[in-house]
Amino acid sequence: MNQLLLKEKIRNFEKRLQADMRNIYCPTHLALGHEDVAVEIAEVILPDDWLFSTHRNHHHYLAKGGDEKLLWDEIHGLPEGLNQGFAGSQGITDKKLKFHASAILGGLIGAAAGAAYAEKANKTSNIAVCCIGDAATEQGVFWETLNFSVLHKLPLCFIVENNGKSVDAHLWERQAVPIVPRVQAFGVNVCSTVSEALSSCREQSFPSFIERNVIIECAHLNMATMLDLCDQSEPILERK
Amino acid sequence: MTIQKKTFAQEINRALETAINKDSNVLVGGQLVRYGVAGLTTGLFEKYPSNFITYPVSESLMNSASMGLALAGKRVVTIHVRIDFLASGMCSLVNHIPIWYHKGHDLPIVFICQVGKGMGQGAQHSKDLSSWFENFQGWNVATPETPGQAYNFLLDSIFDNKPTLYVIHRELFDAKEPKELVRRQKVELCGASRRHERFFYGPSHDRTFYGDSTDYEIEDLSQRLK
To answer: Chain B contacts of A144, Cβ < 8 Å?
Structure first.
């Protein structure tokens, strides 16, 4: 799909959800502002590659070729939904597309390593792409997986979408030093574009990493139907 | 001619080899699988290296990677030397594996781990977490009580598509005769001394476990464990 078309598809989908939030009963994290990363992934990811995602996953799912209606119905809790309404927005999975998302921050990083290990054991050229946010790099399993993936030369590509926030908490109050030099110290290939990260991972069958800064254009969590413990107000964007 | 009785470790070892020969997708992982894990994998790593994964001391990764391997079509056996080490990587055991199973994904994963008893292992190594998993939708719990069951339960679990916690009770592991296992509904905590064990396992513990008939005092732990 054309890049502009995919970007529009994602934005339109998220805006339609935003407008329909009163009819949604599950915690829903919109990806407005994150869609460029998904467009860049879509350019280079292959159908047999794995894509692991997070609580904020609609853009990744659509970039992997996901079906808009199945996703819409899942988020609305309908039996026709992608996971028959059992998963909700945050935990969608699609066996055919090799796509999995979880609400637990960094929860699927190790699963991505397992999938990458299996692909390597099966001697395929498929890779596992693991999308996470900046805060997931604060989880121990991220560092465990960096070490393991370099040790076993796994075809595992980490994409960090850094929007500078973990719910309400800013990056500067959570992390002592920048992420890239710490990842570099493990010997992972640190790349400067998403495309380069996926390509080098596939060509070298070796873990790669890209930190991609984004500006989120919506609230951390959109939930019209219940109170929650975090700020749901829409951000005031200060664009350059 | 006397027929040598097989031990738990030998039967688990035999089940792993049978499984590997039956399906090349069987992958056995653990931190010490290269070194035999007290007999469970002795001789197998050298014979079937491509069916083994050696992990760093990274339990969160081990448990989560087990799910990724299973999603990719592997039949996964992950060995933790003790059940409390399994619990060190609890996230995927609670937040992903049972839920993904109920989302319709086959997850042929067996976590093998051991519950200790006696020898001062105390609350750390002798607590039995089985009842947690028995009460958790999406998990099977297999607790063999004889070497024959150890073989059959392990093979059944590896070729089932539902995740299984396979619990070895240390007291049975090298038992020469069958022993009755005490099943506890709650996770209960024993102290790390003989006087605590006497209270926890009962006054016959010294005789039945250590073969020591001395009449020792028992320390009542009920106040501490309230």
So the answer is: 56, 58, 60-61
Q: Which residues of A touch B62 (CB under 8 A)?
A: 110
Q: Chain A contact for B95, CB < 8 A?
A: yes
Whole-number mean pLDDT of chain A? 93
DSSP string, A83-118: TTTSSTTTT-EETTTTEEE-SSTTTTHHHHHHHHHH
- Provide the residue ranges of all domains of chain B, joining segments of one domain with +: 8-173, 193-226
What domains, with CATH codes, occur in chain A? Answer: 3-213 (3.40.50.970)
- Search chain B and give the residue with CA nearest A95: B105
Q: What is the ipTM of this complex?
A: 0.94
pLDDT computed for residue A240 by the predictor: 43
Question: Which segments of chain B have a pLDDT < 70?
Answer: 1-4, 176-177
What does the alpha-carbon distance between residue A4 and residue A36 come to, in Å, rounded to a whole number? 10
**A45 pLDDT above the threshold of 80:** yes
Gap from A59 CA to chain B (nearest CA, Å): 21
pLDDT of residue A228: 62
May I ask the CATH class of domain B8-173? Answer: alpha beta
